[in-house]
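Possible regression after last week's pipeline update?

I re-ran a chain I had predicted before the update to compare outputs. Posting the input and the new output here so someone can diff against the archived version. Not blocking, just want to make sure nothing changed silently.
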Amino acid sequence: MNETPVKQRNTAAYYAQAVASFGIALGAVALGIYHLAVDGWVRAFLGIAVLYLTTSAFTLAKVIRDRQELTQIVSRVDQARMEKILADYDPFQPKV
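New output (post-update):
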């Protein structure tokens, strides 16, 4: 019983929607900051804060993905070890 997980691939449309959604959201925030009735320094601070939040979100997503992939690899190694032990075990073999 060898269960190999199926690799999930995203469609081109899903990828395009994700990129477009990100671009629209970032553009809307930038436009909102630009049209605020505040001093330039406040706009600059908010712009830097948005960029920092964006890069932090990308980093967090990568760390979560890496941890999930590591868990899957460890699980597969443990499963392979168990399958080898079970394949090598013969209950009728005389004990030495």
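Follow-up from reviewer: compared with the archived run. The helical segments are 12-34, 40-88. Marking as no regression found.
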